[in-house]
């Protein structure tokens, strides 16, 4: 499937490369644009536009790494650092502002109290985005698999869910 505008949500974890690759594959056939965003969550005790030096430096480095690793012509890739209270609403708002055709967001195999959990941001994006949402999940690390579970070795996991 090809899409003209795709928003890739980067988090600085092991899913970023898969998210970028998936997003690039979606825009490449039509010479579309891949927008990469990294969202800095600003504590409610601070103004949303507060100076967040170390977090901003980390976000900038993640976006620079994305720009060097993505396999797209320079004009087909844009990276932006955002500051917001929460990642989910910031992603949905950015997707609407840019009128993207799809969002690619990643998740590792997070656990809350020993149970699989997507946290707050991914479900928010899945529920509120007005476009296609592609959820990229890396396979669990060998030590995190439940006994008896079967996962093909060397395979990437990606699920496509629509938000419309």
Number of helices: 4
Biggest β-sheet: strands ordered side by side in the sheet: 3-2-1-4-7-8
Work out the strand percent. 25-35%
Structural class: alpha/beta
The main β sheet shows up as: 6 strands, mixed
The coarse silhouette is globular
Radius of gyration: 16 Å
In the predicted model, the low-confidence regions spanning at least 5 consecutive residues are 147-157
**Reported CATH architecture of the domain at 11-84 and 97-117 and 128-143:** 3-Layer(aba) Sandwich
The level 1 CATH classification of the domain at 11-84 and 97-117 and 128-143 is Alpha Beta
Order of helices and strands: EHEHEHEEEHEE
Q: CATH homologous superfamily of the domain at 11-84 and 97-117 and 128-143, by name? A: HUPs
CATH topology of the domain at 11-84 and 97-117 and 128-143: Rossmann fold
Quaternary status: single chain
Number of strands: 8
Mean pLDDT: 85
**Distance between the terminal alpha carbons, to the nearest Å?**
17 Å
The level of helicity is: 25-40%
Characterization of the model:
The chain contains four helices and eight strands; from the N terminus they run E-H-E-H-E-H-E-E-E-H-E-E. By secondary structure, it is an alpha/beta fold. It has a domain at 11-84 and 97-117 and 128-143: 3-Layer(aba) Sandwich (Rossmann fold), CATH 3.40.50. The strands form two sheets. A six-stranded mixed β-sheet has the order 3-2-1-4-7-8, sandwiched between helices. Strands 5-6 form a two-stranded antiparallel sheet. The longest helix has 17 residues, at 53-69. The radius of gyration is 16 Å and the shape is globular.
């Amino acid at each position: 499937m090809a899409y003209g505008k795709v928003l890739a949500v980067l988090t600085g974890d092991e899913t970023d490369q898969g998210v970028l690759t998936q997003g690039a594959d979606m825009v490449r056939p039509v010479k579309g644009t891949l927008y990469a965003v990294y969202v800095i969550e600003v504590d409610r005790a601070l103004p949303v536009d507060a100076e967040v030096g170390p977090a901003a430096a980390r976000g900038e480095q993640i976006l620079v790494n994305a720009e060097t690793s993505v396999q797209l012509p320079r004009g087909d890739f844009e990276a932006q650092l955002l500051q917001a209270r929460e990642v989910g609403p910031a992603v949905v708002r950015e997707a609407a502002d840019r009128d993207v055709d799809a969002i690619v967001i990643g998740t590792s195999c997070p656990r809350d109290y020993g149970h699989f959990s997507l946290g707050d941001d991914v479900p928010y994006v899945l529920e509120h985005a007005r476009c296609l949402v592609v959820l990229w999940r890396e396979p669990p690390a060998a030590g995190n698999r439940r006994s008896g579970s079967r996962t093909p070795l060397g395979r990437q996991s990606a699920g496509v869910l629509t938000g419309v």
